[in-house]
Amino acid sequence: MFALTSVPRVALRASAPAKQWAAASQSIRHASTLKEAVAEAIPKKQERLKALKAKHSNTSLGDIKLDNLLGGMRGLKVMLWEGSVLDAERGIAFHGKSIPDCEKELPSAKDLGLKGKEMLPESMLWLLLTGEVPTADQVRGLSAELASKGKLPSYVEKIIDSFPKTLHPMTQFAAATAALNHDSAFSAAYTKGIKKAEYWSPTFDDSIDLIAKLPAVAARIYYNVHGKGDGKQAIDPNLDLIGNFSNMLGYGDSVGMTDFLRLYIAIHGDHEGGNVSAHTSHLVGSALSDPFLSYSAALLGLAGPLHGLANQEVLVWFKGMQESIGQEASDQQIEKYLEDTLASGRVVPGYGHAVLRQPDPRFSALSRFYEQTPELRDQPLVKMVQQVSKIAPVVLGRSNKIKNPFPNVDAASGAGLTAYGMTEMNFYTVVFGVSRALGALPNLVMARALGLPIERPKSMSIEALEKSLK
Ligand SMILES: CC(C)(COP(=O)(O)OP(=O)(O)OC[C@H]1O[C@@H](n2cnc3c(N)ncnc32)[C@H](O)[C@@H]1OP(=O)(O)O)[C@@H](O)C(=O)NCCC(=O)NCCS
């Protein structure tokens, strides 16, 4: 457990009265190992930020053009996000580590003696929060902590059970996540007057609590809407987060599906801060809304078809294509179908990206999984995903407006789920939503540790623009 000598400097800096000190050190003494690691990482980050501010507060990071303002703020460097950085050519790096680096370095199911071989989302969470690669023992401890917190309060179960089956699973997911804020440690501490320097601690506790509970929320929705799983959301304390998730969904007997979910959830965790879900949680969290409310808002953004819902849209598009030209379609037929989609004014889901200008490394990671897994390799849908990924960039590349004709992660993700038996497309974005918390919530913890202010960019009217651009 945490020794008093290593009480986080963030608490020391707060010059808190003795009573609050005791409360802070008490909470640290019972903290998980991950919390200890975060407490150690925070003062170093605070110092680095302080040094940057002291030296560069007025240094320009670039101009703002009218194009940026009208173009969804693309390219504007306007937020701090520690977990990952997205490079247009190289793709995502989590604290500098690419997906192949993570696959090599992060503790996997195999390292923990579990069935399977893929990296564990718990390992990714540790990396995202601390910037460090955890040991297998540290990940095992984190898995056990998440398992101990995974059960839903009965009032949330009742709320989920009251939703009509016809309500989209993402709407249910966001509503149930918001309702979990009934027990928010941050809200309770804020009401009692917690000091600003200590905000990160209950934010961390809420974040871990929410990450632990998201699989049970998702599984209950899956059971209610699609009748799969046993509806009980029982949690095995000896299993990892996704081992339990897979069990709850009714796929626990499939090592392949469980391992696929581990990879899926690890690589969807974070994609820097500017995407709709990540930015939404950051924005809402900047008002000091608790992690449950902030992440609920993120889920509502993820539910949009240009963002997370694209993984559902891809399957709808594939189904339409199979109905129209059959399962064994030729390259020419697929090319024509792609051209017809574009000509009809619709987007080809799973292709393009606001930042990336190369194939998405997350797509490559899933493709690699498909190629290396005999039970998936020859599945018709998986084969079609691979086939389309070679033709679509050529067709989309002919358009002079589409900046990135390559596949993104959504082009591949649904095929694996379908092949393993999860054929219910309207649940796919929920699986994504279980994952995105791994990146969005650590950012809330860091934003509070670094004392970031409420977000408040300046908007302009057409009239104001006309005047200022005269
Ligand atoms: C992801 C996405 C929203 C990025 O949008 P963006 O940053 O505006 O992309 P671009 O700058 O390349 O867009 C320029 C134009 O090309 C179009 N375009 C981009 N990707 C396209 C696609 N896959 N199919 C058809 N048209 C596309 C845009 O709709 C836009 O058209 P418009 O000028 O008529 O509005 C866009 O590529 C898209 O809609 N893709 C399909 C949905 C998807 O897969 N989303 C998940 C992303 S991880």
UniProtKB/TrEMBL annotation:
A GO MF term: acyltransferase activity, acyl groups converted into alkyl on transfer
Recorded superkingdom: Eukaryota
InterPro entries the UniProt entry points to: Citrate_synth-like_lrg_a-sub, Citrate_synth-like_sm_a-sub, Citrate_synthase, Citrate_synthase_AS, Citrate_synthase_sf
GO cellular component, one term: mitochondrial matrix
Annotated compartments: Mitochondrion
Chief place where the protein resides: mitochondrion
Biological processes, Gene Ontology terms: carbohydrate metabolic process; tricarboxylic acid cycle
Swiss-Prot/TrEMBL keywords: Mitochondrion, Transferase, Transit peptide
Record family assignment: Belongs to the citrate synthase family.
Protein name in the entry: Citrate synthase
Provenance organism: Pseudomicrostroma glucosiphilum
Taxonomic lineage of the native organism: Eukaryota, Fungi, Dikarya, Basidiomycota, Ustilaginomycotina
